[in-house]
Amino acid sequence: MAETPEAERRKILVIEDEPDIVRGLRDALEFEGFDVQARGTGGEGIMAAMEWGPDCVLLDLMLPDDNGYRVCETLRKRDETVPIIILTAKAQESDKIRGLEVGADDYVTKPFSVAELIARIKAIFRRQQRMSSTTDESFAIGPWTINARKHTMQKGRATKRLTFYELEVLKLLRERSEETVSRDELLEKVWGMQASPTSRTVDNFIVKLRRKLEEDQKNPRHILTVYGLGYKLVP
Ligand code: CA
């Protein structure tokens, strides 16, 4: 058993109805020093997420009371930043895309290896840590000041929260200011996904981001579409 003081243990919520999988996950995660709670329905899972405030959620797609996508959407509405990893028997690319569109951070297909799942959880935590330690930087996009450490964008008295992925997209576009970044590159570098035949995920994401950032989202001035190629940032 890893020896981590109680107060520093990361909390993982498992929303899954198959007892064997829950048992296996619980054993492995506790062995790694994580604090684990499990719920067997979407409704109970959402309640537990609200009350317990987990650091990461593992979410099964096929739950007895609800479909995991809807549970994911609800979780995301209430907490924009908690990492959500979807567990599912479905392997099709379209499911993966749909999962990411409703706000999941990662995806593992059953039967998955627990070691691989734990590696992904740790990778998410490392990314978060790296982000909060290296990024007290802030940068401007139009009238907004993006604060990477606080996950916020600010203009005068208005402050909006940025999700993990929104910030990552803005950072990548900013690193390459005035250059075109392709959808495939965004998908790969930000979401860690291989280029897929449909890059709608990225497009939908950009639409939402513009809604937050652009004065007139129909005539964006900062996140520009480079037709047939990708996107570029004009700060
Ligand atoms: Ca299930």
Detailed description of the structure:
Helices cover 43% and strands 21% of the residues. By secondary structure, the protein is α/β, with parallel strands linked by helices. The chain folds into 2 domains: 6-130, Rossmann fold (3-Layer(aba) Sandwich); 135-233, Arc Repressor Mutant, subunit A (Orthogonal Bundle), CATH 1.10.10.10. The strands form 3 sheets. The chain has a 5-stranded parallel sheet with strand order 2-1-3-4-5, sandwiched between helices. Helix 1 (19-31) links the parallel strand 1 (11-15) and strand 2. Helix 2 (42-52) packs parallel to helix 3. The longest helix has 21 residues, at 114-134. The radius of gyration is 19 Å and the shape is globular. It starts with 10 loop residues before the first strand and ends with a strand. 30% of the residues are buried.
